[in-house]
Amino acid sequence: MTDTTAHQPGTLSVGWIGAGRMGAAMASRLARAGEDVTVWNRTRAKAEALTDVGCRVADTIADLRGHDVVFTMVSTPADLEQVLVGEGGLLADPANVPGTVVDCSTVSTEASAAMRAACTELGAVFLAAPVSGNGKVVRSGGLTLVVSGPEEAFERVAPLLDHLGKGATYVGDGELARLAKICHNVMLGVVTQNLAEITVLAEKGGIPRAAFLEFLNRSVMGSVFTRYKSPAFVHLDFTPTFTPILLRKDFDLGFEAAHDLDVPMPVAAAAAAAVQASVSSGRVEEDFAILLELQAHSSGITLKPENVPVDDGLSG
């Protein structure tokens, strides 16, 4: 985490585009830290909900053009293109652009590079800053970010990024942060499939899921992620945080990068086959933790929810 002693909260004017579950939680953390935050969202009511924590509401994206830093947290590459270079977008007035654009959305390398070029042409700095976590992780202070772009710009906004959670890791120039996020999500799939396999193995042998996962999480093999996913595995609660289709997309991007860089990925390939099976099952609106039930089905057992309390590691 960056030393923030030289930064005085409120000295940078901060714009925020996108107040969905993630964007709202992140903007809220900035405002609670004393930063000067103005939020725009397509559905205004979602931005207005943030006035309770000190955010102001922008009537239009144009109201954010003169800010020192503008964060974007939107759903798709098309959304990012629209809010930056579309009609009425952040970059629509060449004479009035923000100093730095920090994009926290999960978009492709190509989409990111196109928006970086648009910013650079008009004299704005673009930082790719995808995140690891969801709304609950943000609220608990556990969000992490990976950033690429001009290092001086990263250093300038790092105190803001530190407010968002555990801080940000700078990985280099260009779109390297996008590759880092793809690698991260490939591991997400591999670890979840492996966790599903060993949990089903333990249960078929007679061990309750909650007991096995408690042991695992207390051991050196436990992690923030295995603890976080344990309630879903124990209770069979597949409320979506990340769907199999999104995970399949990231595997595809990972394999594309692996092909270009000549990196064999045999373990990832096996996990990707399981993720494809989850998509093929038709259960595409649930959380990717359904890998557990699919593994159980393949192993000849039917799982039932276990009605026991499970700590997700984010509450304390």
Task: Write a structural description.
The relative contact order is 0.10. Helix 7 (176-204) packs across helix 12 (291-298). The radius of gyration is 21 Å and the shape is globular. Helix 2 (44-48) links the parallel strand 2 and strand 3. It is an alpha/beta fold and 316 residues long. The mean pLDDT is 95. The two termini are 21 Å apart. It contains twelve helices and nine strands.
How do the helices and strands line up, and which of them pair or pack?
Layout: E1 13-17, H1 21-32, E2 36-40, H2 44-48, E3 56-57, E4 69-72, H3 77-85, E5 100-103, H4 109-122, E6 125-128, E7 131-132, H5 135-140, E8 144-148, H6 151-163, E9 168-172, H7 176-204, H8 209-218, H9 224-235, H10 244-261, H11 266-280, H12 291-298
Parallel strand pairs: 1-2, 1-4, 2-3, 4-5, 5-6, 8-9
Antiparallel strand pairs: 7-8
Helix pairs in contact: 3-4, 7-10, 7-11, 7-12, 8-9, 10-11
Keywords, separated by commas or semicolons:
single chain, 316 residues, alpha/beta, Rossmann fold, N-(1-d-carboxylethyl)-l-norvaline Dehydrogenase, domain 2, 2 domains, six-stranded parallel sheet, 12 helices, 9 strands, globular
CATH class of the largest domain reads Alpha Beta
Task: Note poorly predicted spans.
Answer: none
Helix/strand/pairing category: alpha/beta
What is the CATH architecture annotation of the largest domain?
3-Layer(aba) Sandwich
What strand order characterises the main sheet? 3-2-1-4-5-6
What is the string of helix and strand elements? Answer: EHEHEEHEHEEHEHEHHHHHH
Q: Over the alpha carbons, how many angstroms does the gyration radius reach?
A: 21 Å
- Relevant CATH superfamily of the largest domain: NAD(P)-binding Rossmann-like Domain
